[in-house]
Design brief:
Blueprint: H1 5-15, E1 25-28, H2 34-43, E2 47-50, E3 53-58, E4 61-70, E5 75-77, H3 88-110, E6 122-126, H4 134-144, E7 150-157, H5 163-166, E8 172-177, H6 197-204
Parallel strand pairs: 1-2, 1-6, 6-7, 7-8
Antiparallel strand pairs: 3-4, 4-5
Helix pairs in contact: 1-2
Length: 210
Amino acid sequence: MFQDRLDAARQLAKALKKYQGQNPLVLAIPRGAVPMAAWIAQALHGQLDVVLVRKLRAPFQPEVAIGAVDETGLAYLSPSAATWGLEPAYVKAEIQRQMNTLKARRKQYNHIRAPIPVKGRVVIVVDDGLATGATMASALHALRRDQPQRLVCAIPVASPNALPTIAPLADETVCLSAPDDFVAVAQFYRHFPQVDDAQVLASLQTKFGP
């Protein structure tokens, strides 16, 4: 159980201490992970940025992920998506809906600064937890194409089912807890407020690194 996201970030930063001094690029999956990634970037003397991916929502159950899509439009469908009997038209429309959100966010964030290049960097991708792992999988797929030196997935908590999906996509996975009684990410935080765009923009305006 974590007190809040910053408590989780402090614990993750300790687990990632070996990357201190390597100027890692710490990428948050917005919006919830941004305050966490900001803390970790500061603790490791690295840089902060975001990786934009969006969950693809199950029909009539928007809290359930059937997959995710990245900024290029490349969609990742979870292995469990096949059990939903999804119509191709639904998947196509959902991808377009989430792409519209991604484009709007990138335009908003670009007013602050352009994305930091990934190639040749130690890249640490942070989220506040993994349920299906779909958004993290999409993020790791997208980042691998940009040729980082080392790609690390860092999460405080994950469902045991998500970890085997994620592990092959990263060079290292740092997960503090994968409890058998996992139902949702929020159950492992005493305080789990929404993170808004103003908080994301404020974090991106803060200078990190040496």
